[in-house]
């Protein structure tokens, strides 16, 4: 998820941050070293030059909008699959996210920055991470934790160490296990015939724990269903294809890079693959693990958040691998069936450390000199 | 210093949890309910008062070099007494506080008061200090416990406060809830302190600029000095 | 040198005084602690048994089953055994073992269960502690219903929403407990004498019992591993369910 356009702006070495719009600009305290760093590994378009610099035209709200566009197909699909229930969840979530953002900024005497779309995006992402049966009060609790506790308390957009939408989702997972893990419904056209069922990951876990038989073999049809989204799950996690399309759109628009998603998904595939080879009767097929759960939405839209993930490409690869490792550990050995959100939050926590150890060398300085300095 | 002041300081200006930020292990671990908070707080108060009293009265006989082991033995003795008595007479409470009763031994606030206060002051004032600190600690624990209990279980002192349709926010009685509530209360208390200081025209007990920019990680990252100099504003460049 | 001596002396005095004080307190509290522990045990027994007149923790039979010793607490009214309480462990909870006490009457009908220890998810599996869940088993016996399963598996016991695994584990453990009771009923209800020729059964009174059952002085209070090697071998078929 992209929640901080400020960094992207800085990648182009632009100096006059006052021209950036709304919220991002207000918080654009200059960070001399960080700017230096970003100059190092940037898109191929980057050229080292002295000022004056041209503003590329990217703004916080612009980036937020792009991400929202990328999520639109998934959103539309979720309404198609789960019907009005999904629409209700999205509406409440986005609306209350905006409300909490405005309220907390008013209380904290900060400029109210609803027009940077970051609260809309947080609300939308949280909604896409909830089951279609979520009661309204639960969504309110979720957005409250996401916006107020997860973001504004830390100083607002750009200062939050953890991904706000995931903070909301994890609070709900832990607090309301019945609503969050036991009331999944199967998708059907416009949500006409909802049937209570378990998510694929939940089913496997339950079967393994109770010693029952579980079909770990992934048939072609089963795989296709998972890929297309014909399965129970959160609103936005079901259709892998549409998520992938949205992610590719963002990569093409240079909003995100490939590093984090690729290393995240690859790590999950390789690790679950190893376990599958060791004992195929206990551990499911790696392809199954990749397409189920919230892996795609997590890897493409949550783990790529500018604010809470590393800055350099090397850092992103490490970040993605760490997310993958924690996800697999939680899925296979933890007490929750799904671990993507926990994994990303854990890695958010050590992002400053990763950044510190993957700091690129300043151009023109040799290793020894740098060490001496 | 006056006796009253020594007693009162534990509640606000030197509150063990919110001002000294000491003794966080029991604070975070046992405050799942207001009742646990009272139990833990009173047990610690007992140990604090007794150890302060004993240490203040034998402070002139303890050689400087072995004062820490001597303090710890004294503290551990009283903790064990509390453990045994509570196990015998308040069995249920003892069960729910569990391991954290013996751990009072390593509660920093108790050794801290022994070292910083009781070993330098007379018996009477040390007891007052122990009482003030202990009650300050107890009240803090009860407040945290009550907030966590009401949100996480819908009850205060096991009395339901919401209707049966209330879904408890389980997170609050789990470990993360302790951190969230403690952080919120710390922030709120600092805010109130700043307001009070402004009104009274004195210097606040905390630095106003205790924000992220003063954090060690932040300073290391931006190569700032110890002073926690804030990064330059854009127009200063 | 003199300094070291002094330091040692002071510390020794402090430690000695502490030890003295603690010895005194420990002695004074030994009885209340023992009473409190016993009260805790009795509380659980009272919870699962119909009213009794004796002291069930003084009237126990210990059976060895699959290498584990299980204590049966017998509640009596007018000298007759009216209820038996024993602890069962469900090994397949959602996270770890669930230990609970079952109370049955002399014909094997469940009188109540009381969860003693578990690590199930708060808000989900932890609901096995709730009265409404525990009451679902009251009045049931091994033959009523026929199938000891949760509804989801085709049985008659309603599972807790979202906590099928915990409910299933408890249900199956109760069934196992009832089977055990049924199988060893003679031993449990009897005066405590082992059947002639019973190979795997080591019958003894509970260690804490102050009224040793007659005729079993030889095994009284011996640890579990004191069984003869030959006995252990025959265990599996006994447990072959």
Write a brief structural summary.
Chain B is an all-alpha fold. Helices cover 60% and strands 2% of the residues of chain B.
Describe what you observe in this structure.
The complex is a heterotrimer of chains A (about 375), B (about 240) and C (about 240). Chain A is built from 19 helices and 2 strands. Chain A has about 375 residues and is mostly helical. Chain A has a domain of about 160 residues. In chain A, strands 1-2 form a two-stranded antiparallel sheet. In chain A, helix 5 packs parallel to helix 7, helix 8 crosses helix 17 and helix 13 packs antiparallel against helix 15. Chain B is globular. In chain B, strand 1 and strand 2 form a beta hairpin. Chain B has a two-stranded antiparallel sheet. Chain B is mainly α and about 240 residues long. Chain B has a domain of about 160 residues. Chain C has about 240 residues and is of the alpha+beta class. Chain C has one domain. Helix content of chain C is about 35%, strand content about 20%. In chain C, strand 1 and strand 2 form a beta hairpin. The N and C termini of chain C lie far apart (about 75 Å). Chains A and B meet through helix 7, helix 8 and helix 18 of A and helix 8 and helix 9 of B.
Notable characteristics:
heterotrimer; A: 373 residues; mainly alpha; two-stranded antiparallel ribbon; 19 helices; 2 strands; globular; disordered N terminus; C: 241 residues; alpha+beta; five-stranded antiparallel β-sheet; 6 helices; 5 strands; elongated; disordered C terminus
The ordered string of helix (H) and strand (E) elements of chain C is HEEEEEHHHHH
Number of strands of chain B: 2
* Oligomerization category of the chains in this entry: heterotrimer
Instruction: Give the rounded overall mean pLDDT of chain B.
Output: 83
Q: Give the CA-based shape of chain B.
A: globular
Question: How many separate helices of chain B?
Answer: 9
How do the strands line up in the largest sheet of chain B?
A: 1-2
What is the domain total for the residues of chain C? 1
Mean pLDDT of chain C: 76
Relative helix content of chain B: 55-70%
Q: Helix amount of chain C, in percent?
A: 25-40%
């Amino acid at each position: 998820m992209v929640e901080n356009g400020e960094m992207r702006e800085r990648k182009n070495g632009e100096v006059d941050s006052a021209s950036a719009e709304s919220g991002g600009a207000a918080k654009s305290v200059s960070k001399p070293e960080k700017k230096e760093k970003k100059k190092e590994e940037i898109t191929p378009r980057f050229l080292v030059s002295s000022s004056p610099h041209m503003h590329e035209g990217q703004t916080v709200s612009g980036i937020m909008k792009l991400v929202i566009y990328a999520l639109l197909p998934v959103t539309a699909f979720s309404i198609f699959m789960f019907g009005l229930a999904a629409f209700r969840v999205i509406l409440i979530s986005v609306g209350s996210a905006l409300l909490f953002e405005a309220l907390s900024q008013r209380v904290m005497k900060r400029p109210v920055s609803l027009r940077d779309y970051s609260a809309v995006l947080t609300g939308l992402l949280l909604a896409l991470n909830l089951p279609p049966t979520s009661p309204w009060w639960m969504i309110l609790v979720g957005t409250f934790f996401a916006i107020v506790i997860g973001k504004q308390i830390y100083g607002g957009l750009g200062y939050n160490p953890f991904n706000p939408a995931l903070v909301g989702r994890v609070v709900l997972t832990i607090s309301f296990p019945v609503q969050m893990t036991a009331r999944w419904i199967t998708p059907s056209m416009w949500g006409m015939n909802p049937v209570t069922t378990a998510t694929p990951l939940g089913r496997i876990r339950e079967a393994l724990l109770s010693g029952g038989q579980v079909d770990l073999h992934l048939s072609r049809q089963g795989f296709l269903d998972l890929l297309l989204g014909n399965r129970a799950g959160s609103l936005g996690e079901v259709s892998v294809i549409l998520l992938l399309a949205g992610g590719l759109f963002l990569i093409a628009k240079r909003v995100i890079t490939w590093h984090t998603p690729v290393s995240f998904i690859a790590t999950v595939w390789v690790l679950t693959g190893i376990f599958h080879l060791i004992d195929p009767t206990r551990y499911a097929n790696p392809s199954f693990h990749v397409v189920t759960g919230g892996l795609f939405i997590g890897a493409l839209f949550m783990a790529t958040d500018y604010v809470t993930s590393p800055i350099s490409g090397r850092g992103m690869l490490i970040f993605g691998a760490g997310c993958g490792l924690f996800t697999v550990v939680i899925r296979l050995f933890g007490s929750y069936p799904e671990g993507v959100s926990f994994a990303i939050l854990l890695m958010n926590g050590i992002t400053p450390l990763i950044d510190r150890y993957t700091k690129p060398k300043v151009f023109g300085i040799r290793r020894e000199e740098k060490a001496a300095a | 210093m006056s006796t009253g002041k020594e007693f009162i300081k534990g509640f606000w200006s030197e509150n063990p949890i919110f001002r000294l930020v000491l003794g966080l292990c029991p604070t975070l671990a046992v405050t799942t309910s207001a009742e646990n908070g009272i139990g833990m707080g009173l047990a610690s108060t007992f140990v604090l008062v007794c150890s302060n009293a004993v240490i203040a009265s034998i402070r002139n006989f303890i050689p400087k070099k072995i004062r820490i082991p001597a303090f710890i033995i004294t503290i551990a003795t009283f903790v064990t007494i509390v453990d045994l008595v509570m196990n015998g007479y308040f069995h249920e409470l003892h069960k729910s506080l569990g391991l954290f009763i013996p751990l009072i031994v390593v509660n920093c606030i108790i050794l801290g008061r022994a070292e910083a206060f009781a070993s330098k002051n007379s018996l009477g004032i040390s007891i007052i200090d122990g009482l003030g600190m202990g009650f300050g600690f107890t009240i803090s624990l009860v407040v945290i416990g009550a907030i966590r209990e009401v949100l996480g279980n819908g009850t205060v002192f096991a009395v339901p406060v919401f209707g049966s349709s209330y879904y408890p926010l389980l997170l609050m009685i789990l470990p993360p809830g302790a951190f969230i509530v403690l952080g919120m209360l710390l922030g709120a208390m600092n805010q109130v302190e700043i307001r009070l200081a402004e009104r009274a025209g004195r210097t606040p007990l905390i630095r106003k600029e205790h924000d992220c920019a003063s954090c060690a990680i932040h300073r290391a990252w931006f190569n700032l000095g110890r002073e926690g100099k804030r990064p330059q504003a854009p127009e200063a460049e | 040198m003199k300094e070291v001596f002094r330091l040692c002396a002071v510390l020794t005095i402090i430690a000695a005084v502490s030890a003295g004080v603690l010895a005194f307190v420990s002695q004074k509290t030994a009885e209340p602690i023992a009473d409190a522990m016993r009260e805790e045990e009795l509380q659980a027994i009272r919870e699962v048994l119909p009213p009794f007149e004796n002291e069930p923790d003084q009237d126990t039979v210990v059976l060895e089953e699959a290498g584990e010793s299980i204590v049966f607490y017998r509640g009596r009214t007018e000298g007759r055994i009216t209820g038996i309480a024993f602890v069962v462990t469900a090994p397949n909870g959602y996270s770890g073992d669930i230990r609970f006490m079952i109370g049955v009457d002399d014909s094997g009908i469940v009188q109540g269960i009381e969860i003693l220890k578990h690590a199930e998810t708060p808000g989900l599996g932890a609901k096995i502690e709730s009265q409404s869940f525990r009451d679902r088993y009251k009045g049931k016996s091994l033959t009523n219903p026929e199938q000891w399963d949760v509804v989801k598996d085709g049985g008659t016991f309603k599972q807790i929403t979202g906590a099928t695994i915990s409910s299933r584990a408890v249900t199956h453990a109760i069934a196992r407990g009832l089977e055990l009771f049924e199988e060893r009923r003679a031993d449990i209800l009897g005066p405590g004498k082992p059947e002639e020729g019973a190979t795997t059964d080591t019958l003894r009174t509970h260690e804490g019992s102050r009224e040793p059952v007659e005729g079993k002085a030889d095994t009284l209070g011996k640890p579990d591993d004191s069984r003869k090697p030959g006995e252990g071998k025959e265990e599996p078929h006994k447990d072959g369910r």
